[in-house]
Amino acid sequence: MENEKPHNNRFKPEIGRGCAFCDCGAEVEARPCDGCFKLHETAWLDEYPVNVPTDIVEVRFKNTRRSFYQNVNNLPLKRGDIVAVEASPGHDIGIVSLTGDLVARQMRRTGFNPYNGEFKKIYRKAKPYDIERWQEAIALEHETMIASRQIAADMGLNMKIGDVEYQGDKIKAIFYYIADERVDFRELIKVFAERFHIRIEMKQIGARQEAGRIGGLGACGRELCCASWMSSFSSVTTGAARVQDISLNPQKLAGQCSKLKCCMMYEYDTYVDARKEFPRLREPLQTIDGEWFLVKSDVLAGTMTFSSSKEAMVNVTTLPVARVKEILALNRQGKKADQLQHAEALRTEVEEPTYRTEEDSITRFDQAKRRKRGGRNRNKGGEKAAPNNNTQNKSRQESADKGSETPKEESARPAREDVRNDRRGRRNNERQNGEKKTNDRKEGQRQSTPAEARDRNRSEREAPANGAAPQEHTENGTGNRNRRRNRHRNGGGDQTAPAGKKGGDNGPAPQNA
Hints:
Mean pLDDT: 75
Distance between the termini: 122 Å
Structural class: alpha+beta
Strand content: 15-25%
Number of helices: 14
Strand order of the largest sheet: 4-5-8-6-7
Helix content: 25-40%
Shape: flat
């Protein structure tokens, strides 16, 4: 449709009516917005010529309210035109939704019957004055609904006012309400008339109609059927769920209106027709092997599943409906079937190759995490010394020999190794110096008497004679560590060493003669 274009920032959309208003010019302008209204229709006969000329058109109003009107003035109407139609009293403003041959099909589908056999009339196309008054009436609807709910609650009426729709000329309003029981709202109408100064019409709707007027998304992820295309509702019972083998879970069977879902009736007739082919089993199937009890039936697949035990699922076998009818015919004649299945059905099915390769594996991108060799604590404690200069020179010579193949990589590798070795050596020296200072400080604290110092000197002089290493500061350790090791081998120790410490004995050391 040419005039159904998306609104821009200048046009303010009205979702209930499916149009947009603009006050940007000298006069108020309104345009229809496709997709902003309930009960969408598809004019699939719009491109074809009209076979049966008719002057009846369908006009839509707020939300799901629609009706059929007669074009008595032979106006050139098309889908999307805003027209002024007959109302009781006054006139109303609506938008033309269907014309041509589809109107008759729509009337037949919805079961519409004109009041007293006469259609209401279309007066004219809406003028700017009509659109401006219509826009003022729409602006009053929300405030009126909130105030009416408060009035009904103060009067103690057991009802819920769900929506208010003003007439296009702003002299009448329709109040849609929901109530579980009969409500006497005669006094309520008088209060509404005094409060809002308009004519009042009360219209009771059900939970399904309310869900259609409000709209929303269903469990299937699509727009509610009652808000998108359903205009008449049929009763839904739990029998429809039993016929279709649906779990009787009230949380899954109920829709947003707290009633059973309307979509349960879509495939009900198909299931009923398919179940006519299934035989009714009142007794188990009789075969030479024994009795077989019905477990379940698959309506769409046309199969029935049997078990050899009545209380448990044992030797479960699935049979087509035709085979079940054959066994039933034999049982009615007093005979037992030789076997439950045909001989052809007993053949083992050949497993077809799946042609699955490693490329189809979902774990082909997973790689095992490799544990890194060494680590940050590789040279902890100074146990491993940094490589000497000869090793570094050898690595440089080997890289120089390979320089013709990868000159950039091989030349950069020795430089990185030198940096690492320098760092390791620097850390080892710092650690050794720190340990030496600590040990010297401890030794200074332990030298308290001349006798203890004389015994310590004697043990140091005897250590080389026993085959111990000389007390020197080596690259891989400290002289302090060797001194403690020699004392442990000679069975001696400091007399003043505290108990429980490394390098000291649990008791006082024996005095050397």
